[in-house]
Amino acid sequence: MASISPDAAKKAPPPVIAARQVVKHYGRVHAVDGVDLDIEPGELFGLIGHNGAGKSTLFKMMLGLIPPTSGEIRIAGTAVTGRGFRAVRRRVGYLPENVVLYDNLTGLETLQFFARLKGVAYSDCPAALEHVGLTHAAKRRVREFSKGMRQRLGFAQALLGKPQILFLDEPTNGLDPEAIREFYAILRGLRAEGVTVVLTSHILSEIQERVDRLAIMATGKIRAVGTVQALREQMDLPLWIDVRIAPPDFEAVRAVLGQLPVSAIEAHDEHVSVRCARDAKMPVIEALATLDGRVLDLHVREPSLEDVFFGFSD
Amino acid sequence: MEIAQVATIAGKEFWDRIRNRWVLAVALVFTVFALAIAYFGGAQQGAVGFRSIEFTIASLVSLVIYLIPLIALVLGFDAIVGERERGSLDLLLSMPITRFELLLGKYLGLAGALAFSTVAGFGLVALVLATQLEFNALLHYFGFMLSSVLLGMAFLSLAVMVSVFAADRTRASGMAIALWFFFVLVFDLLLLGALVVTSGQYGGEIFPYLLLANPADVFRILNIFALEDVRTLYGLATVFPAALAEPWLLGLVMLGWIAAPLAIATWRFRK
């Protein structure tokens, strides 16, 4: 690999997806209302929002399926509509939400149909089926597929032609927990190859530990963008510390906790849960450490993405 | 435009109709009707058996003018709205394909299926009758087949236009049936009514041209002007001036009826 000069290393690579002041009006409804967003190459990016928040509309504009009322979206430096659209589309894989594929085709025929449209060789199709664990269903008709199998087939379709950017709308809908784990394992593999992945989900707990960054959307605007950790810090939501105490020392420890900068104490059996601000976390833990031996165990509960999310969208 | 993309979409539509035996079923319907008309069409007059190609074609025209528009409208009304409703339209449009290529591919694939059924269904009858027909009669019969294909193409074009405009499949089917009622049943009655109400004083000259505003009438004129014996059997179309009844001219009008709804559909689909 060529050596990188210090200047170049400092400079961030150009965003693979760049949205500038994107607006979409449907009559009086402002579905998307001035969105600026940069998604970096090789990122696993989550787009979160309630139904009607505008994320599907933004998604469709990124894909060039609907034109923005104003503003511009570029993918790898090229406008998504207009002359360069075919080149852009060939670099993109898309899994729509709740897609119903063609019942009368087999798994393999479905992929072959989309392969032809994408200009991908038929010989790539069996590998795509294998990638999502559907080799056994290559010759079965989609009519007989379960919901999860249909979703996997849709994902295989999105992977055809090794796209550099994947748009996945609620990709884990209908997948069981095991399949969801496999799905994210595939995404991690793709990210390792430098593929940029943008996905939406309403199951926040599922994606919060899995995406690199996420954007929270509400009423057509991006309310916050960043890593889960950065968003938590930005919100400065209180966290909980669960403490397990040996029963004879219960009251003594409670008294110590009562003198600390905590906002709530809940006691049940031999557990005490303490709520405190983020900057009080270390002082509380240090105070507990001085109670040598009387604290049996300690567990810090960070605010969940739901807390962060509802904090921003309220 | 990339022909390969059009061909991919068209190929899928065509083979879907072959695989689900749609083409076979429609071809059989045509064959059975055509044979029944050819051999039993004169039964009212007490004669059973093949009489003449003129009367056979005249009877077939009366049948086909109802049947083919209906089949074409049913075939095409959900071409786009069906994809939209199942959620696969966005996926198709995210491919490296333009909206026009998608629409044209849909149309050509369905048109191929309809044309294949028409030619196979009526062609089989031509083979059966071939031994009893002169060359000229066969020519007439092929003219009938060709015009039937054009009639199907025109109504299929209308159907695809409906499939772009309609918000859902239910409305699309309603619009398709309404078009069938209008062009096949109501249109001639309206013209006749207008002629009677005005006592033929107004619009006598433009009246023949108004017939061109209905692909079903164009089909009728195309066929009956080739058949001297039966021309008088047809009410309205007989007022059509012979000078305009050139097959190539009427063929062009039919092509216009294929192109115009597709053009409107493309305009709307791109919006």
Question: Which secondary structure elements does this structure contain, and how are they paired or packed?
Answer:
The complex is a heterodimer of chains A (314) and B (271).
Chain A: H1 6-10, E1 17-26, E2 29-39, E3 44-49, H2 55-62, E4 70-75, E5 78-79, H3 85-90, E6 92-95, H4 107-118, H5 125-131, H6 147-159, E7 165-169, H7 177-192, E8 196-200, H8 204-207, E9 213-218, E10 221-226, H9 228-235, E11 239-245, H10 250-258, E12 264-268, E13 271-276, H11 281-289, E14 295-301, H12 305-313
Parallel strand pairs in A: 3-8, 3-9, 6-7, 7-8
Antiparallel strand pairs in A: 1-2, 1-4, 4-5, 9-10, 11-13, 11-14, 12-13
Helix pairs in contact in A: 4-5, 9-12
Chain B: H1 3-19, H2 22-40, H3 53-76, H4 81-86, H5 88-93, H6 99-129, H7 135-165, H8 169-197, H9 207-211, H10 215-224, H11 247-270
Helix pairs in contact in B: 1-6, 2-3, 2-6, 3-7, 3-8, 3-10, 6-7, 6-11, 7-8, 7-10, 7-11, 10-11
Q: If you had to describe this structure to a student in words, what would you say it looks like?
A:
The complex is a heterodimer of chains A (314) and B (271). Chain A has 314 residues and is of the alpha/beta class. Chain A has a domain at 236-313: YebC, transcriptional regulation domain (Alpha-Beta Plaits), CATH 3.30.70. Chain A has helices spanning 6-10, 55-62, 85-90, 107-118, 125-131, 147-159, 177-192, 204-207, 228-235, 250-258, 281-289, 305-313; strands at 17-26, 29-39, 44-49, 70-75, 78-79, 92-95, 165-169, 196-200, 213-218, 221-226, 239-245, 264-268, 271-276, 295-301. In chain A, the strands form 3 sheets. In chain A, strands 6-7-8-3-9-10 form a 6-stranded mixed beta sheet, with helices on both faces. In chain A, α4 (107-118) packs across α5 (125-131). The longest helix of chain A is centred in the middle third of the chain and has 16 residues, at 177-192. The two termini of chain A are 48 Å apart. The relative contact order of chain A is 0.13. Chain B contains 11 helices and no strands. Chain B has one domain (3-270). Chain B is an all-alpha fold. Chain B is globular. The mean pLDDT of chain B is 88. The chains are: A alpha/beta (314), B mainly alpha (271). At the A-B interface, α3 and α4 of A face α1 and α5 of B.
